[in-house]
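Quick review question:
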């Protein structure tokens, strides 16, 4: 049985969090500087290069330290975790590409160059990790992971080419699932561990301005509608395990969830306070907790008074 590559979701999130120094300096009320700024550009490149080198060093000297190297092999995990894992890969690439593009525009790069070198950043950062997986026993190179990475970067690039802006934001929410307590550590024991290991707790959202759907000047530009995807009942990648350690895991039905909710596009909130503008700009990937309607493949409909 192959090892679930759940850690890779955390790579995208780590890049996002550590790169906020670059994106948070972009005031949402300002246009990108029309003059190429060497200092800003150097800061962007140095930040991303340091993160990338550090991550690759961690993989080679710590993560894969005790893993057996094998001839390059493939691994078909397209159906794993009811595709929640693929949404995670796309999300990580989206974050990296969004930040890469915005940071290069902030540094004064042309739109074309920012898209080529920043918009593709997510795919470029994550592809070598997929390739390295192919050389270790129990892992393997996944074409579906590569496709998801490409999709994440493509969402950023495609929107800029079609609309000249990011009209749709790709967001994520985490809510602790009841399954973690039944899993004897298989789905993580700490909050951080469960974020990386418990896909039951993940929801990925596509959030778009309501005024893009209903054309009206009365609708504030920051008010969004969001469509989310998640899955539940998962104690394994392709099928549920029956026990972990000495603990029996109860039989559980695996099912998909489709959610509908309202949201806020933080980047569209304008204030006279520069600091708040920077904070809102850096919150582009966070969905506001809000009531939600769920349609699932287990028992139909469910309403949440507050979904977070």
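Suggested answer, residue by residue:
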């Amino acid at each position: 049985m192959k090892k679930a590559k759940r850690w890779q979701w955390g790579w995208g999130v780590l890049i996002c969090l550590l790169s906020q120094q670059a994106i948070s300096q972009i005031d949402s009320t300002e246009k990108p500087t029309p003059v190429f700024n060497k200092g800003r550009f150097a800061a962007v490149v140095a930040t991303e290069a340091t993160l990338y080198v550090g991550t690759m060093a961690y993989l080679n000297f710590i993560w894969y330290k005790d893993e057996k190297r094998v001839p390059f092999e493939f691994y078909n995990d397209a159906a794993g975790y009811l595709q929640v894992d693929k949404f995670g890969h796309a999300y990580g690439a989206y974050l990296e590409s969004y930040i890469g593009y915005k940071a290069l525009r902030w540094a004064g790069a042309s739109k074309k160059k920012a898209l080529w070198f920043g918009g593709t950043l997510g795919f470029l950062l994550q592809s070598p990790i997929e390739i390295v997986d192919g050389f270790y026993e129990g892992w393997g190179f996944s074409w579906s992971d590569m496709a998801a990475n490409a999709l994440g970067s493509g969402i950023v690039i495609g929107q800029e080419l079609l609309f000249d802006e990011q009209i749709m934001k790709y967001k994520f929410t985490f809510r602790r699932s009841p399954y973690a307590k039944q899993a004897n550590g298989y789905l993580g024991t700490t909050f951080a561990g469960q974020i990386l290991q418990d896909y039951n707790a993940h929801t990925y959202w596509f959030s778009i301005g309501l005024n893009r759907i209903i054309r009206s000047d009365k609708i504030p530009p920051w008010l969004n509608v969001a469509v989310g995807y998640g899955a539940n009942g998962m104690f394994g990648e392709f099928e549920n395990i029956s026990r972990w350690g000495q603990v029996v895991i109860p039989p559980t039905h695996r099912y998909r969830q489709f959610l509908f909710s309202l949201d806020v596009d933080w980047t569209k909130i304008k204030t006279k306070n520069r600091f708040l503008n920077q904070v809102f700009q850096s919150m582009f990937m966070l969905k506001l907790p809000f009531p939600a309607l769920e349609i699932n493949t287990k028992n139909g409909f469910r309403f949440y008074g507050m979904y977070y």
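Why it works: The two ends are 33 Å apart (CA to CA). The chain has a mean pLDDT of 86.
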